[in-house]
Amino acid sequence: MKSNLAMLILWIFIVIQGVSAQSAAMLDSPDWTLKKNKDGIKVYLRAEHSSEIKELKIELFIDHPIEAVIRALDDLEAGTEWIYACKEVKILERPSKDEVIYYTRIAFPWPFLDRDAVIRSINHWEGESFVSKSQVVPSYKYKNDLKSVVRMPQLDIEWRFTKIHEGRVHLKYLLKSDPGGLIPTWLIHLALDNGPVQTMKGFVDYIGQLSE
Questions:
Q1: Which of 50, 91, 124, 137 is deepest in the core (most CB within 10 A)?
Q2: Is 0.70 surpassed by the pTM of this model?
């Protein structure tokens, strides 16, 4: 009897340890996998535990002063000039000097409908780094009755600009998104990095235009 009780206690201990180890592993973020390294732009992907769609990270250096970089990013309504496939950007509110709520619409190729979102962006400094974080605002009622678009359920973006020295900035860009609608995950992954990479190139070109 005592032997059976001891075995039961041991079995419960092993199960608990196994569950604890599994939980810890889930909390540890998987390593980023380098997908592409071209034209000075590094693209990484990793699995996202709460979604079938992978998370994306882009890193590059920008050879402009950080003040010029921030000025370009803050010029939101010029986003149609440099954000890939962007058809519209409209500022809806500026609750504070560091916060903005805006609407954007992104063109999607046939046979898919365009995507749109209302987004809140908040900016702040972390030491030598300027950080801009954006998320969708699902409750915001603006153009939410359009039949020609799909409202994106998730769009989490982080821009992190770190000053290396005067005239050179390191950019780390993070993206977690879900375009919504009936697009297969495998098809999303095929094109996951194309738009962001083209956006990075357009952003750098736009900074140069503002600096001329």
A1: 137
A2: yes
